Amino acid sequence: MDALPPFPGFRDEAFQFLRDLREHNERDWFKPRKATYDDELLWPARCLVGELAEALPRAGVPLTGNPRKAPFRIYRDTRFSKNKAPYKTHLGFVLSRDGTKKAPGALYVHAEPDGCFLAAGFWQPESPLLRRMRERMINEPDEWLRLAAEAEEAGLSLGHGPAGTLKRMPRGFEEHKDAPVAEALRRKGVVVSRDVDEARLKTPAFTDDVVTFAKDALPLLAWGWSVVDAAPSS
């Protein structure tokens, strides 16, 4: 694809579109306004992905993305959901080591009125990977506790991601319910996040915000990647 210009910042119209979409989440409303979505949200997001794909490696963060493929589709999959609203009311995209959405360990940018944030980590790792991560926490608890403390010092929220947290210890780890890493063992993912003021996304400087966040999150990403890369080959 043709080279994209630097990220210009999202305009006020972008967030107003998402606010209006909350009130009119219907195909008849969206279809005649799709060009607004493309121009005010999708195009700037692609510019941001393109800029980050160059800026992150320069900053020592091995993440990249394809400007056309990194943004998530605005169309919701309603097949198995009680919520039949056809559209998402936010915009999000992912950068990863190989530039795909499914690669383990990624950076996520979320743009939503009054709910913008950055996240990085392993959202819903497959069961074998999640088990290896838990085993690493048990075998090297001081390493994990140090990473968690450093993330907190950097102003990152260490949470469970969208997958949630188990109420009980995972199977095979019951004996570690009193371990210092017990809370982390119950998580279904390993994720850090940082809330971002909507105003920051309206400026070109938001690129620098994402790079700073990625550098702060890199120790946790590197920890997870070391578990991924240590997996025995099949």
Structure in words:
This protein is an alpha+beta fold. It has helices spanning 12-23, 27-30, 34-58, 127-139, 141-153, 182-185, 206-229, and strands at 91-96, 106-111, 117-122, 157-159, 190-195. A 5-stranded antiparallel sheet has the order 1-2-3-5-4. The longest helix is centred in the N-terminal third of the chain and has 25 residues, at 34-58.
Q: What is the helix content?
A: 40-55%
SSE succession: HHHEEEHHEHEH
Number of helices: 7
Low-confidence stretches: none
Strand content: 5-15%
Any idea what the radius of gyration is?
A: 19 Å
Mean pLDDT: 95
Strand order of the largest sheet: 1-2-3-5-4
Helix/strand class: alpha+beta
End-to-end Cα distance: 36 Å
Major pleated sheet: 5 strands, antiparallel
The gross shape turns out to be globular
Work out the number of β strands.
5
Layout of SSEs?
Elements: H1 12-23, H2 27-30, H3 34-58, E1 91-96, E2 106-111, E3 117-122, H4 127-139, H5 141-153, E4 157-159, H6 182-185, E5 190-195, H7 206-229
Antiparallel strand pairs: 1-2, 2-3, 3-5, 4-5
Helix pairs in contact: 1-3, 3-7, 4-5
Short description:
This protein has 234 residues and is an alpha+beta fold.
Give me some keywords for this one.
single chain, about 230 residues, alpha+beta, 5-stranded antiparallel β-sheet, 7 helices, 5 strands, about 40% helix, about 10% strand, globular
